Amino acid sequence: MFVKGRPFILATACAVALALVLVFAPGATAASRPAAPNTRITLNEVVLGPTGQAPTADDYALAGLDANNNQAFNLVLFDQSAEATYNVIAYRDQPVILDDLPANATYTLTALAPQHFKADSITLVSEAFAGDFAAGDARSCTITLQAGSELELTFTNRIAPAGFGNAVVASNYYKLPTPPPVINETPDSAIDRILPPIKSGDTVDWIEIARNGKYSLIVRSKYINFYSSNYDNLNFIYTSYGPGSPPSNAYGSSYVRSNINSWYNGAASGTADRLPSGAALRQYAMQNNATSVLGTTYAVGTGGGLTDGFSKPSNTYASTLSNTDDVAFALSFTESANFLSVFHASTGGGSTTPSAPDAITNFNRLTPLPAGGYGMWLRSPGSLATTAGILTQTGEAYQFNTASSSGQRGLIYPALWVDSAIFK
What we know:
Blueprint: E1 2-5, E2 18-24, E3 40-48, H1 57-62, E4 72-79, E5 84-92, E6 96-99, E7 105-112, E8 117-128, E9 132-135, E10 140-145, E11 150-159, E12 188-189, E13 194-195, H2 197-200, E14 206-212, E15 215-220, H3 255-264, H4 280-284, E16 286-288, E17 313-317, H5 333-339, E18 343-345, E19 352-354, H6 357-363, E20 374-381, E21 387-392, E22 396-401, E23 409-411, E24 415-419
Parallel strand pairs: 3-11, 18-22, 20-23
Antiparallel strand pairs: 1-6, 2-5, 3-6, 4-5, 4-7, 7-10, 8-11, 9-10, 12-14, 13-14, 14-15, 15-24, 16-17, 18-19, 20-21, 21-22
Helix pairs in contact: 5-6
């Protein structure tokens, strides 16, 4: 007896064909069995996804399997008259034919599904010349061979995701989906963690100032240099808020936004700061809605400035996006007043209110802002068309004129929503 391979086109279009190699069990050798000519069995193994569809890479991954692995399957043929056992080892994508099994014999054929596969069915594709097939259950059948008999059978297995034991006895092989993390409307303040360069991939520390579920709002501890030369020269680290005369306070067209995007996207030139392409921040950064939630710069009327500018992350990792503009952003007045300041403006006339202790702690973790009227630009527009949100050198969340001058010099500090796992 021998095993002979040949190309084979599956009858089931969505199936994956598997190879079969016949191995004699102890006590059943070619010498001990009389050869009977002209019997042929074609045994096809096919694999389906958990719901009966063509298997995908995700189906294999959810079951803890490697879609590229040459998975072995086992079939056992038992000759009922001679009490001889033949073991068939099946390998994927190499279909074979079993020629010249002893005729005038009845065999029990049993499929042994490996872990994380579940036997689904055995079907007769064709029979000829007095070959006979009788189905048992999803994993066994009986066949009878006469001289010249030909049978073609298909064994079907479904992928059974991990967590339900051996697939042979699994009764429920559907893996329940994991619900997405909950994202609240308002984040909570945080003061516990600093992200050092060795974990962020940037050149300076990042400060965690708030959390929303499994995500963290972090801000760079030092401004970015956006000029192509004169690195850290105090005359080249600040900018007016945006273009125009006087400059616009619209964040969407601002220099603040464009320089943050150039930093994150690695497009800044010369000696300007750029986030390295392999920085861990890129792996953990989340898509967010910061550019559509600008807020206002102080408690106008009903106090909106303290509550109307909270950004939120989504459950989408920025690394999956084709366009990464606005993954990084400037903080809003709301976020600065609540999470990163010593005090904040409470009226348009300049009255101030002390910020919460957590906000003060976080402000003191920033690299000290240079003296001389420097501040951190915020994305929130000011109360006038010529003003925009700012966090001053002394820790006040308020507003500056959009045109930088000798007493009002705006710096650029990127912020990010990241998966909190980056801190581990």
